Amino acid sequence: MAMRRLKEVISDLQDFYLLSFKGTIGIFRRPFYFRDTVEQMDYAGVGSFFIIVLVSLFIGMAMSLQLSAELSRLGLKIYTGKVVGISIIREIGPVSCALVFTGRVGAGMASEIGSMMLGHQVDSLRVFGVDPIKKLVVPRILSSIIMLPVLTIIGNVASLLGAYYIAVFVSNQSSYVFWTSIRDVLVFENVFSGTIKPFIFGYLIACISCYMGFTTKGGSTGLRLTTTKAVVASIIVIIISDFVLTRILLYALGFSL
C-alpha cells in the first residue's frame, strides 16, 4: 500500500512538472491566444482589485496599531514607519496578496477547468486539434504572473496608507517622520525582494490550480475536492517558497543573519 501510494505521488508530481513545463514553453510558441489572456487578466486583476485593497488596508492598519503600542513602551515610536514599511514591502505584502489571489483566482481556475473536464469540453478541444494547455493553461499563467505583481504593488500602497492613518491620526506621530521612514526603506534590496516574489507566486498558483482542474473526476463532489486541493496546495507552496526565496534573497543581497 505504501509503495503504491508513493508511485501515485511520484506520478502526480511528474504530470504536474510536465504541465508546468509545457505551459511555460507555450508562452513563447504560436498560436497566441491574446483574447483569452486579456479575459483572464480582467478576471484575475480587475476582479481581485477591491478585495486586495480592502485586505491590505486593514493589514497595514493592524500592523501600525500593534507596532505603535509596543514601540511606544520602549520610546521608539518614531521607528513605526520603518518597521511597517520593511515588513510590508519585503514580506507581508507579497504573501498576503498571494494568499488572497489563491482564494479567489486560483480556486476559480481550478473549478473552471474542472467543470470543463467533467463536461468533456477539454476532450472536444483535442478533437478539433486545439492544444488544451495552450488554450487553457498558458493564458492563466500569463495573467497570473502579470496581474499578481501589479496587485501586490497596489496592495502595498493601500497597506502603507492604512499604516499612515493609524500612525499619524491615532498614535499622533509626525507625518513627515513617517513618510521619511518609508522613503528610506524604498531601497533596491527591499523593493527587489518584495517585487520578485509575486511573479513566482503567480506562476505557482496558476500551475497548481490548472493541474488540479485537469485531474477533476467524480462529478460535483470531485469538483469540490479539486477546488479545495488547489487552494490548500497553493497556500502550502506559497508559504514554503516564501521562506526559501527569503533565505536566498537575503544571502544574494548581502544581508547578514
Structural class: mainly alpha
Give the count of helical stretches: 8
Strand content: under 5%
Between the first and last Cα atoms, what is the distance in angstroms?
44 Å
Average pLDDT figure:
90
Shape: elongated
Our Rg estimate from Cα atoms comes to: 21 Å
Helix content: over 70%
Uncertain runs are none
Please outline what is shown here.
The chain has helices at 2-26, 34-73, 80-118, 121-127, 132-170, 175-185, 188-214, 219-252.
Features:
single chain, 257 residues, mainly alpha, 8 helices, 0% strand
List the helices and strands and how they pair.
Layout: H1 2-26, H2 34-73, H3 80-118, H4 121-127, H5 132-170, H6 175-185, H7 188-214, H8 219-252
Helix pairs in contact: 1-5, 2-3, 2-5, 3-5, 3-6, 3-7, 3-8, 5-6, 5-7, 7-8
Q: What would you note in describing this structure?
A:
By secondary structure, the chain is mostly helical. The chain has one domain. 86% of the residues lie in helices and 0% in strands. The protein has helices spanning 2-26, 34-73, 80-118, 121-127, 132-170, 175-185, 188-214, 219-252. The mean pLDDT is 90.
